[in-house]
Task: structure prediction
Amino acid sequence: MLGNLGFGSGSQAHLSRGKPGALERGSYAEVIAVDAKSNLIMVQKDTGDIVSYDPARVRGIDAYREAEKSLAIGDRLQMTAPYRDLDLPNRAIGTVEQITNDELTVRMDSGRTVTFDPHEMRHFDHGYAVTSHSSHGLTAEHVLVNIDTEMHSNLINARFAYVSVSRGSHSAQIFIRSRRSREVQGWLLCQPLKLQ
Result:
């Protein structure tokens, strides 16, 4: 299972779209070195070939770190990349219904049931929490919102606050860690919320 992160030694590079160059579309390679000064990433392909490329010149390469996680029937999963073969968009969420040696069967929140080989279709993670960006169009009875302006403070604004808080149909609990907590509270107090 692959979780998204930045390029770093030991992470996996995957060409998901764009023109093939250093990597072939759909392939994976292990990042073995990052030269920030020259803006180059060195990867080792499955064939053993080592190539380097400038990420500013290549589009469609994402970085992931492969992680082993336990799954059980009833676990919530979230897709972390689109799966065109199964017509699953990025960030689609579902519940694990069946696990066999080579397949996972997941009932998506859309109502569809899909079955896939987790060794082939590796871009998914536990789906118990979603980002504000991923929550667009979703509704849950109860919402927990973590607002941490110490990390990515430029992304915290009135729109973020509104989108995050308005996902809850019954309640929203807000957790703030910020030197700017009064400003964040001001955004939240200015947002009219209609709870059903």
